[in-house]
Amino acid sequence: MDVVDRIKLSIITMGIIILVYSLLMIKVEGLSPLDSIYFSVVTISTVGYGDYVPKTELGKAISTIYILFGVGIGLYALGNVAEFFIGGYFKKKDKMRKMEKRIKYLRNHYIICGYGKSGKVVAKKLEKSGAKYVVIDIDEKTLENELENNPNFNYIVGDATHDEVLIKAKIKEAEGLISTVSRDSDNVYITLSAKRLNPNIYVVAKADEKVAIDKLLIAGADRVVSPYIIGGLRMAELALKADVLDFISTFMSIAKYEYDEDLELKKIKVDPNSPLTGKKLHEIKTQYKLEANILGIKKDSGLIINPPSDVEISPGDVIYAFGTSDQLSNLEKHGKE
Q: What is the pTM of this model?
């Protein structure tokens, strides 16, 4: 029960006890209504002015029971009031108000369905890249704790398989949705709902079972990720190509921790209206000061590895690039314009 509800309950209970005791004192002790209410409040507050004491045996017995229950209820109410102020209730409400305002104005954001192990990794990566996102999960306590630690965290408590929850997450204005809930059937259902509500949204879904991959693709997922398949392939690669992978991992770690360079590999699709289309590789590098290393370009005719400088960029080409976050962001910006 929320602290505000506990305060309301304790106040109502205390009011009822005071009223009942006042009526009993009117009948048993013969007090006037005003005197009985005055005596009830003085007694339950433990002030005890001593200007009046019960004179009858029944009145004393009733007062004893009243004090035991009344003081307990009063202390319970005071404890809840203290929790309300000291426990940061106002601070929590202020964070919630700011978060709801952020969600209200979200545009071109990402929706993360499920905040388990995979969802947390996705959220951390999106936040690191500066992307706007909102998380949907049914575990309210976990989400509240995350907001407490991260004031910029956005979440909605609910079941992502329900349309009204996705609409609340501004799915019609979202750029992408990442479904990482535990059940494959739920990921399929979320994908279907997302594509129906926003046909242009880019959906990435998680699949635990191999059979779920085809179902998710049929449902409309643009990409399907199987953690178990990826993990197994990675383990096999480490066993077969340990030296190569260790070199890449070590190289990127050195760049990160010794030179503070965040190196990444990225795939960028060239939009039809991009200023890069129709120009050769050396031209766009010079004109737009693109410093990312182009490792390959995938065209309709096939994949060009280590493309020469005279390769012309066409709409729909997929560029595989390596570089820092800023370099890749610059390339991606021109590729999507």
A: 0.58
